[in-house]
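Posting this for the archive.
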Amino acid sequence: MAKRSTGNTQYKRPWNINIGFIIFAVILLYLVISIFSYMTTEKLVGYEVKSGSLSTNSVYKGLALRREEIVLSDYSGYVNYYNEEGDRIGKGNLAYTVDESGTVMDYVESMTAGEAMFSDEALSELRLDILSFTNLFDPKNFQSVYEFKNSIRSTTQRLSSNSILANIREMDESGLSASIHYGYAPATGDIVFSVDGYENRTFADIVTDDFDQSLYQKTRLENGRLIAAGDAVFKLCTDENWQIVFPVDSLETAQMLRDEEYIRVRFLKNQYESWGKVDTRSDVNGQYFVCLSFTNSMVTFCGDRYIDIELLMSDEVGLKVPNSAIVDSEFFLVPKEYLTQSGSERGVLRRSYAENGTMTTTFIPAPPYSETKEDYYLDQTSLRIGDVLVRPDSAETYTLGRMDTLTGVYNINKGYADFRQISILYGNEEYSIVVPNTMYGLSEYDYIVLDAEKALPDQFVYH
């Protein structure tokens, strides 16, 4: 008996492709990849270039170097001086006396017993000095107190010594001066009553420890003290030419000052200004020193070893760029005659060969990044060492090989890192001031990569 058909036949359902679902999946995958790339790619942080100048440290404590001659005593006894510190004394002039037995002081005391040692004229001079200091005293400048103290000491020394000298002459007449010896200046110079061991130092001898004032020892040669034969009795500064040496924090600062050749200096002690010729050197430890040479005003500071100075630099204004944005990059040097134009683009003609050996010439966009009198600087984005360039309208060729380095930053105005050459005027540890509006350089309000080490040429910027 034949099986009856129920009339319900099952058919296999065909597989329909949902185009909308595929498009959605592709978009979703693209978004996932983009987000992942954004999250994992190190961002290039931009910096807006603006005009400015640098506030650099221009005040230094310098070490004074002079031509100094220490004079030694030929006698033992009590010394008396007849000049103030800083006085100019001629060769052969009386500078001091040495009293072997103390006869002079005994005689002076006996002659002035119950009387004032200074005359009315001398006391009037001291009163004027004190009144002048009182009227001009500034509590904010307490250093002036020490300067006044030394000035008064020097003045009283001169006045008392003049009184003693007058008494010595009286003793000569009475025959009581047999134990007194006279000392004369061996050369012409400015007299100083102190020694410190720096008298024979030169710029080449200076080391970092010389600026540690806690190690500095200065011996004052006091009036009336007991000395032995061969002791230092005074010092002469015999040349108006002198130097101030000070340390600086970096090679860049040393080079910046050396490039100036001459610098105007303000001495903070008296606000006097002078021009100094610049020289620099470094020691084996990498410490840089600057030396300023002067031809005047030495006598004003002949008793000072450490002098505070301010460098009066002309503040050139330019574009202020972080040092982290500055990079050195290598470029090909290509003769100018090999550059050509194709539409709005500049570039070069590169020779190449097809698979069948046919020689062809291809235009390669290559805008210049700088130039010399004979060459353009072209980057390495599309060119390689060994490429053969063809001179337009000629059979001459040039093989890429010569290279040079440019200093610059990465400009990101167009959304990608584009090298721009810069010319640095001066700088400090954080920023540099560069020349604005140069042909291949920067302009104010340009955006550059803040950290050049994280950027690559033509790298796109993620915002």
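The helical segments are 19-40, 103-111, 120-136, 143-174, 251-260. Residues 19 and 149 are 99 Å apart (CA to CA).
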